Amino acid sequence: MTRWTARVRADRDHYELVRAREDGSAPVPEFPREPREFTVELTGEQVAIGRRPVADEAGAADRAGPAPSPDDPGIDLTGPPRDPGVSHLHAVLLSVGEDRWVVLDAGSTNGTTVNYGAEALTPGTPVPLSSGDTIHVGAWTTITVRRRDDAADRA
Question: In this predicted model, what pLDDT tens digit does every residue of 99-108 receive, in sequence order?
Fold first, then answer.
């Protein structure tokens, strides 16, 4: 059986590209001093990428606690550190067929790119992914998707 994982990390290279493209309309925050890295197994038909509301955002007072909700994104980028360039629903990974995934931008404010591309994805347009592809969201977040063969994992 083949499964897919998504490794999430703060990416200095992506951050520097975002800074280089800065047009002055919004300041780019500092790169996090203590970035975290985590891996999520991709399961189900879709996995949302985004962040939960936090206490300093309007309407989030009842969601400020640590209790998970069914509405939380599968790849939760709430932080810490919180990447301010990530929308609540930023992008979505969709399973297509037995062993394929696509990514689509969900109409995010700051866009989504793949493999350090200069052009942001067109919102709502699925882009096929291969094992090892990188998805870039926010000011510094990179998600690397990988196909993992269970038989190879046991070897």
Answer: 899 999 999 9
